[in-house]
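Protein modeling request. Please complete all fields; requests missing the sequence field cannot be processed.
Requester role: graduate student
Desired output: 3D structure, token encoding
Chains: 1
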Amino acid sequence: MPATRLPFELKAWEGEAHQQGACPLCRALPEPLREEAASQPHLLRYLHSLPIEECGVPQFHQRLERKLGEAGLPNVIYPIGNNIYIHVLGDPHDARNFYIPIEPVLEPDELRPLLEALEDRLVDVVTKLPHPHTLDERREVLEEAMRRVVVLNGHRPSNGHRLRAGSQRKLHLGAQEFEAIRYLVLRDKVGLGVLQPFILDPYIEDVSCSGLGPIFIEHKVFKALKSAIAFEEEADLDTFLRRLSERIGKPVTHRRPIVDATLPDGSRINIVYGSEVSKRGSNFTIRKFATKPMSVLDLVEGGSLDYRMLAYLSIVLEEGMNMFVSGETASGKTTLLNAITTFIPPEFKIVTIEDTPELQVPHPNWTREVVRGTGEEGAAVTMFDLLKAALRQRPNAILVGEIRGEEGNIAFQAMQTGHQVMATFHAATVEKLIQRITAAPISVPKTYVDNLNVVIITSAVRLKTGKLARRVLSISEIFGYDTVTDSFAFAEVFHWDPVYDRFEFTGYMNSYLLENKIAVRRGLPASKRREMYLELERRARLLEELHRKGVKDFHDLYQVLAKARRQGLF
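Delivered output (570 residues):
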């Protein structure tokens, strides 16, 4: 099984010698961390093993702020639930800092005999309990089974006596032993084993194992990290992935070595199994599912775009313009697409179509459709099939997770028939996007391209400070296709300036959509069409004011904007 490689030695534990009153380290801890350690013995033990002389006393934060990631060598502990803590510790010898899960069991091998004895007893008890059909039911069954076979704080015979074979004998455990074993059982039987801390951590974006060695992390605050959890034997890694794939209903084998699946929390996992197809051995990558979507104001806070860009997007989406969010891998396309759904009118019926369910639309009239692969029960249902079906469902807006193939042609037909279409796309520039959609296999006729009104280009960029960040590089309007010159007309309305890390409104007083489409739809005469820029500035100020007042939660912002629309304020 995976090993835990701490960057220091875990010291032998003498609990009584380290009680709060007598312990010098406890007195030196900041009060929030001292209070946590007082109730969590495993955290206190971990802190006593830290080389405080070298790394210093860790900071403790209940919630992380972006500015914490600016420290060159971080030393931060934060909780993620289930009595699990994460320590992000700087490594002066590597580009990646350490990501160390502090679980209620610091050394599982110490409890292995007790765990095996418990599992022997659980087998007979579990078979007599109702068969679970969900993860919650499985947890309840295991909890009940453990209550039946464990005597808590009872007589503590010697290990030899209390581990004697025979499932009828009760297992006598101390309170801390039981909590540790209970955690391991539920983590491994209900959760995802050693991956559970990564799944619970809301600040993780990606988890990857490239073969033997540590598990790597992409963190929202601390960026690229290396985990203290590592696979050291190919057999252990293969066994872990076989069990994991069976748990999620898509067993991986040498005949079927590549699996794409969805984890119970909605995260996406890709598994490549065996050294025949992966020379460094089996590997896997998890793209975390955000249980709480980022709002457009979260993105402004992170520097991805500014208030005027949001105001512009709110106007064009309100007027039913079609839009693609395009960029390279991990550029924040889906995050941005999901965030701007708050600008779609709240009365709209929305259909989302995805390979893997990621989009979380705040609208009540939302139909969520997901493709079905050929390996699953029944016939395959492709994105092409779902898009055709969506046209018969009378949606106001269709959102496509990512357009890759022939479904793109149907998306443009939907635009032709008056449906608002929004999608993500894989292209680094507007020119490359047009090249891809007009070529096979998408094959959109060139004369249809101007049905796409707006293209947002996003990218992961390195700032002058050396920090990696996501930025909207441009927002462009597409005018049309010139059959004589065989060329497409488009223009940037917003542009990111990498020198000063700021956004320029290059389309100010020169926006084709605002003046020649949206103003016309709103019945503005030619002499007043530039009033659209005043409306844009007004909305930008309103969004900035909402942000200043702390209204930035995804769902809260949707509700506030919906109310503002009803009152004619937005």
